[in-house]
Amino acid sequence: GGNVGEPVAVRLGDEAPIEALVARWRAEAGARQDPSSRLAHRREATGREIGRELRRRLWDPVAAHFRDADRVFIVTDGVLNLVNFAALPGGGSSYLLEDGPIISYVTAERDLVASRSSSPAGRGLLALGGPAFDLAAPPAAASAIESGGRGGTSTCRELQALLRFAPLQNPTSRMTPLR
Predict the structure, then answer these.
(1) Which residues contact 179 (CB under 8 A, 6 or more apart)?
(2) 3-state DSSP call for residue 172?
């Protein structure tokens, strides 16, 4: 520990064992099984144990420094981008999501620093309306959209040719500016 606001460096260990542990945890969590099968129960137990080890290596050493925090901001790097810390097992049968502080992810430490910009907050409203993306939708688009449009993989060009949008309806011909 230390005084509030004082940075503390916590060594988590070598990268390779952590990467292997993350890969094993994600493989167990992502395996699709019939939930009623014995194999599914064993996989869940194995996944929880791997998750507990991951929590012991990544979360516990750091959490010792913010025991009473209501909210924790995490900036991840490398393989840690693949870890959902809230999904790590907590005590007993719970997860950090249930027992721990609120976990928020930020992309960089600078996101936590309040902006000292002197520019005033925006005022007013910019409203754009009446776009006409296409004048007529081809019949193929309607049937693809009705069937879910997700039958396989499509390229951007195929999707562009497939999806068409009718113009938005303008409810009024006059707009009154906001003041």
Answers:
(1) none
(2) coil
- Asked if residues 143 and 114 have their Cβ atoms less than 8 Å apart, the reply is no
Report the alpha-carbon distance of residue 81 to residue 71 in Å, rounded: 19
Which DSSP category does 148 fall into? T
Q: Given the DSSP bridges, would you call strands 71-74 and 102-105 parallel, antiparallel or unpaired? A: parallel
In one-letter notation, the amino acid at residue 22 is: V
Assign residue 104 a region (left: φ > 0; alpha: ψ between -120 and 50; beta: otherwise).
beta
Of 143, 74, 68, residue with least CA distance to 106: 74
Q: Show Cβ contacts of residue 78 under 8 Å, excluding neighbours closer than 6 positions.
A: 15, 19
Residues 145-156 have pLDDT tens digits of 444 444 555 566
Q: Which tens digit of pLDDT belongs to each residue from 102-157? A: 998 888 877 777 656 656 667 776 666 666 666 555 555 445 544 444 455 556 66
Give me the residue label for tokens 């081809």: 138
pTM of the model: 0.56
Q: Are 50 and 87 in contact (CB under 8 A)?
A: no
The closest alpha carbon to 43, from 94, 85, 35, 55, belongs to 35
Q: Are 164 and 137 contacting, i.e. CB atoms less than 8 angstroms apart?
A: yes
